[in-house]
């Protein structure tokens, strides 16, 4: 979205806001994100199908905030542009976890406590707030079928064979689907969504809850594994107070290994070869 258009939409929707400064920040695949007056964050969905996720967040976050010991977005501004909902909230101060020496202090213990709090959020309440509960096995079987149809033709034979071993090893092991479903963030990455204060050595906020669902708790350690590597992730897991079953870590690593398939899928969706090639390059390293 163009910055000038964003400025006009915000000022037109909220007369109490005069936009003195505005800049686009690093956004994900789902949203365009802007920082206004160095104190407000506004998020505009890139695709209309994300409207359901935005509505879910609007319902969820006020209740979730009561259950967590860390800041999360508080949508003080909810508007519409071209019939699509956008949201704004006061900026949560902090830097992404990966931009800081996360091995200092007790950040691992803090993260373990926060992830435990997230996973202890009542499932029945999450369902009432319209948090989705996907059929986990069916979702991954469907994604694997898409990969065989759309991604395999882009891969050499050796990479295809390694992918088959990883995917079928996961899908054929019944223990991978006996976990107790909990409320999860599902995109708990250290490069964007976990914020910390580098002077106080503390976690200050968790943002971007639009992918939240009821599902496998192991996946909330995958972003840490991706961004902060195995040693730090296992330190967090060692202090986690949720249920850790016998394939928990193996599932965390599986979600990491297949992460690049999501980038390929996104590249296919928006017809962007850069994402496709980045995904293929990463797969060749991790499979």
Q: What do you see in this structure?
A:
With 287 residues, the protein is an alpha+beta fold. The protein has 2 domains: 3-90, Phosphorylase Kinase, domain 1; 95-286, Aminoglycoside phosphotransferase (APH), C-terminal lobe (Aminoglycoside 3'-phosphotransferase, Chain: A, domain 2, Alpha-Beta Complex). 46% of the residues lie in helices and 16% in strands. The protein contains 10 helices and 10 strands. The protein has a 5-stranded antiparallel β-sheet with strand order 1-2-3-5-4, with helices on both faces. Strands 6-8-9 form a 3-stranded antiparallel β-sheet, with helices on one face. The mean pLDDT is 93.
CATH architectural label of the largest domain: Alpha-Beta Complex
Q: Which class do the helix and strand fractions yield?
A: alpha+beta
CATH class of the largest domain: Alpha Beta
Count the DSSP helices. Answer: 10
Q: Give the overall pLDDT as a whole number.
A: 93
Q: What shape does the CA trace take?
A: globular
Please indicate the percent range of residues in DSSP E strands (runs of 2 or more).
Answer: 15-25%
What is the subunit organization of this protein? Answer: single chain
What is the topology, as strand order, of the major beta sheet?
1-2-3-5-4
Distance between the termini: 36 Å
Compressed to H and E, one letter per element, the order equals: HEEEHEEEHHHHEEEEHHHH
Q: List unreliable stretches of 5+ residues.
A: none
**What is the helical fraction, as a range of percent?**
40-55%
Look at the structure and name the CATH superfamily of the largest domain: Aminoglycoside phosphotransferase (APH), C-terminal lobe
**How is the biggest beta sheet arranged?**
5 strands, antiparallel
């Amino acid at each position: 979205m163009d910055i000038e258009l964003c400025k006009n939409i915000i000022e037109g929707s909220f007369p109490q806001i005069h936009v003195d400064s505005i800049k686009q920040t690093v956004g994900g695949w789902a949203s365009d994100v802007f920082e206004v007056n160095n104190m407000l964050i506004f998020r505009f969905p890139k695709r209309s199908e994300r409207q359901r996720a935005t509505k879910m967040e609007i319902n969820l976050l006020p209740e979730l905030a009561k259950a967590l010991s860390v800041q999360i977005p508080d949508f003080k501004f909810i508007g519409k542009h071209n019939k699509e909902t956008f949201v704004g909230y006061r900026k949560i101060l902090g830097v992404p976890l990966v931009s800081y020496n996360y091995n200092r202090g007790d950040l691992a213990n803090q993260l373990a406590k926060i992830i435990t709090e997230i996973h202890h959020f009542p499932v029945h309440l999450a369902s009432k707030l319209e948090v989705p509960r996907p059929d986990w096995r069916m979702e991954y079987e469907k994604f694997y079928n898409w990969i065989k149809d759309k991604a395999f033709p882009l891969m050499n034979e050796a990479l295809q064979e390694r992918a088959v071993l990883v995917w079928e090893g996961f899908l054929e092991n019944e223990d991978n689907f006996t976990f107790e479903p909990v409320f999860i963030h599902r995109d708990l990455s250290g490069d964007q969504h976990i914020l910390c204060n580098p002077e106080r050595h503390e976690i200050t906020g968790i943002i971007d809850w639009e992918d939240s669902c009821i599902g496998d708790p192991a996946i909330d350690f995958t972003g840490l594994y991706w961004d902060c590597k195995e040693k730090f992730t296992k330190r967090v897991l060692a202090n986690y107070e949720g249920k850790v079953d016998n394939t928990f870590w193996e599932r965390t690593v599986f979600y990491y290994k297949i992460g690049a398939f999501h980038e390929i899928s996104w590249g296919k969706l928006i017809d962007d070869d850069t994402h496709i090639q980045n995904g293929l390059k990463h797969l060749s390293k991790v499979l």
